[in-house]
Structure formats: C-alpha cells, structure tokens
Amino acid sequence: MLFATAVFAADPMLFPIRDGNRIGFIDRSGKVIVSPRFDSAGEFSEGLARVSTGSVSGYIDAAGKMRIEPRYTVAPEFVDDRAIVMTEDGKYSIIDRTGRTIASIPYRPLGKFH
User: Fold this and answer.
1) What ranges make up the beta strands (E) of 1-114?
2) What DSSP state is assigned to residue 1?
3) Which of 26, 31, 35, 33 is nearest to 8 (CA)?
4) How far apart, in whole angstroms, are the C-alpha atoms of residue 26 and residue 2?
5) Long-range contacts for 92-95 (Cβ within 8 Å, ≥24 apart)?
6) Which helix (H) or strand (E) holds 88?
7) Could you say which residues of the chain have pLDDT below 50?
C-alpha cells in the first residue's frame, strides 16, 4: 500500500511516498516519479535529495536519476551548491552538486558552515 505525505515541502513538485519500508516520490498528479526503492530519503534541496540504501547515502535529481552514487555515511541537504559529507572511512569533505570534492576537512565539523 502506498502512502503519500507533503512533509517535504522544500520541493513543492514532488512528495514522498512509502510502500512498506521503501520510500519514493510522486508528483502533484499522483504519478510515481521515483519508485519506492530507498530505505530513507531527505528533502529536495537545490534540485537534489539524499537517498539511502543500507548505511550509505547518495543524491538523486527530481527525475529520479542517481546524480551522486551512494557512498556517504553522512549526507545532508545541499546549501549554496555545497554539502559536507562523510565517507565510510570517517573522512569529511565538502562536495558540489556533481559530487566533486571541493575541499577535504581534517576534523569533524561542528555547526553549520553556511
């Protein structure tokens, strides 16, 4: 059974749905845009949403295409075209919306960097 909610109001064009334990997205007409296949998902921010499978996260676009492959254990929303992520080996970095590393961060960041 599919359930939809408008909790993720950051992108008014897509809404999360849940099918059992899987999350996907529908558009305003109810058409499934991203089939429920993720364990968790974040809000769309700057055209991308964090999606997780198991313990790793990546980012999809509003068409459901994987833009940044799941490889991060920490993957927050993008702000000003950047996100601070952490890889499975515990290293932090700042990435852009293509997944390119802009800068490595030698220590755990505290608070917002924006």
Assistant:
1) 2-4, 14-19, 22-27, 32-38, 40-45, 48-53, 56-61, 66-74, 82-87, 92-96, 101-105
2) -
3) 26
4) 10
5) 95/68
6) none
7) 1, 3, 5-11, 114
Give the residues across from 24 on adjacent strands. Answer: 17
Question: Nearest Cα to 11, choosing from 33, 27, 35?
Answer: 27
Q: Which two tokens stand for residue 36?
A: 């429920």
* 3 state DSSP class of 14: strand
Phi-psi region of 46 (alpha: psi -120 to 50; beta: other; left: phi over 0): left
Pairing of strands 66-74, 56-61: antiparallel
What pLDDT is attached to residue 86? 94
Phi then psi dihedrals of residue 107, to 5 deg: -130, 165
pTM: 0.82
Give the position of tokens 């949403």. 49
For the chain, which domains are there? 2-105 (2.40.128.630)
